[in-house]
Amino acid sequence: MTTYLLAGGGTAGHVNPLLAVADRIRATEADATVLVLGTAEGLESRLVPARGYELIVVARVPFPRRPNRAAMRFLPRFNAAVRTVTDVIRSRRVDVVVGFGGYVSTPAYLAARRAGVPIVIHEANARPGLANKLGARLTRHVGVAFAGTPIRHARFVGMPLRPEIERLDRTKARPDALAFFGLVQERPVLLVTGGSLGARKLNATMVAAARDLVAAGWQVLHITGSKAEVTDPQLPNYHLLEYCDRMDLALAAADFAVTRAGAATVSELCALGIPAVYVPYPVGNGEQRFNAAPVLAAGGGILIDDKDFVPAFVQAELVTLLGDRAHVAAMARAAASVGALDGTIQMVDLIHEALTT
Fold this sequence. Notes:
It is a single chain. By secondary structure, the protein is an alpha/beta fold. The model has no long low-confidence stretch (mean pLDDT about 90). It has helices spanning about 10-30, 45-50, 70-90, 105-115, 130-135, 165, 170-180, 200-210, 210-215, 245-255, 265-270, 285-300, 310-320, 325-335, 345-355; strands at about 5, 35-40, 55, 95-100, 120-125, 140-145, 155, 190-195, 220-225, 240, 255-260, 275-280, 300-305. Helix 1 crosses helix 15, helix 3 crosses helix 4 (about 105-115) and helix 11 (about 265-270) packs across helix 14 (about 325-335). It has 15 helices and 13 strands. The longest helix is centred in the N-terminal third of the chain and has 23 residues, at about 70-90.
């Protein structure tokens, strides 16, 4: 019986691949024990127990960015976190530590090194985070979601995707997807989404250009997110939703997308062969631009800066593109050429490799 300790959390970008790997292990290894290391504040505090996994909570200890009072307290708190994880590894007889980035991963990697158990890393972003860059110095088993990610010992495994995405047959599911959202068969579908919280600029621009998009012969499925500040244009063939709990069906319906360029979003769209206009999140370290780079190079997507994503762009550029159905079809094939549906299997294989070498 193998005991796995999966470490990661904070955001969906860390938690979702972790849960995909956990689900795969549980489905294929009946006698395995899967433990998850996370924080009380992150998304994992809700999603991990809901999925039926034991969550072991450690203190959130972010690296200090500047010399101040918090920086003086960092080292004792960080060392305490490493000791806590070391005790967990030893008392629960953990066989392998698998990290997905985030605050808890660094103490998990150091604790694994101290306890003498293998370390495996998955880096979801094309620009790696600090925790995984440090962890990659301690192991040769490093899986990445994007080819060319600049991290030591990188091996392309793809993104561990949700089972409902891995299994999705878009052609077979499309009739049910259209019916679920009240869409019609005669028009292609433009999916617009900025994530669960939404994206103010993306939402406002698309609503402002709603008439032009519908006039171009498309129907729009626009998922605004929970913090939307837009009003439904009340147009035929423009469907505005605040929240969607069946993103698998939204993706089954979509012929084109307008979206942010988070790692999971880019990976899912490419795996399913859906071309897109990517509007990277303008705050942070710029990783979303790097996430989109492979599909842009293949011709399966277009990138535009958030500040330039205005109604005039949609009316002049996007509407023209959507009017060229042959070009859209070619972009779909190009997106699929850089996508992968087997990221979960590849990552689990890498973990098993670490266990046997």
